[in-house]
Amino acid sequence: MTSIRVIAGKYGGRKLDAPKPNNTRTKPMGERIRNALFNRVGSEVRGAYVLDVFAGTGAVGFEALSRGAAHVTFIERDKIAQNILRKNMVSLGVENDVSLVYSSVSTWLKSGKAENYDIIFADPPYHDTQFSTVLKLLSLLKPGALMVLSHPGRGEFPNLTKEIVVVDNRSYGNAFLTSFRRER
């Protein structure tokens, strides 16, 4: 096991377990990109109900919790990542502030158990971005809410509907962060 750290907030500087660097199935979002992401999201995270899909180590969701999110729901199907997530929940002592769903995102969406969220973070595996599943997540945004998608490639997205618009698209090396907002 290796570790990554929570950047700022209540748990700033605390270490999170992460898979070994040679693991090809789970790659945590880099610290530089996470920092840029949370600098952009800013105060929106305080008090928010957050959904972290394709959660991996939970680094993004734990960062949101550290910066004041009210609750984070993690969706993860990989058994290794689930074990790491559980260990990180316990080491931070946040079991009451998070939910961990052991499922693929598409199966969870079909289950009808999904709620609406203030912020959704989606960081699908770069070898399988599952754009059709990711786009279904937009229906879970509350009015005025934000979804941030991490993805490879250029990834210029047109506005999807009158209600869902692209509000930002930035590159960080090979990674792109595209932000969508539900207008109403």
From TrEMBL:
Gene3D superfamilies (alphabetical): Vaccinia Virus protein VP39
Origin superkingdom: Bacteria
The keyword rRNA-binding is assigned to this record: no
Keywords: Methyltransferase, Transferase
InterPro entries from the UniProt entry: DNA_methylase_N6_adenine_CS (IPR002052), RNA_MeTrfase_RsmD (IPR004398), SAM-dependent_MTases_sf (IPR029063)
Presence of keyword Acyltransferase: no
Pfam families: Cons_hypoth95 (PF03602)
PANTHER family listed in its UniProt record: METHYLTRANSFERASE
Name by which UniProt lists this protein: 16S rRNA (Guanine(966)-N(2))-methyltransferase RsmD
Organism: Candidatus Southlakia epibionticum
Gene symbol of the encoding locus: rsmD
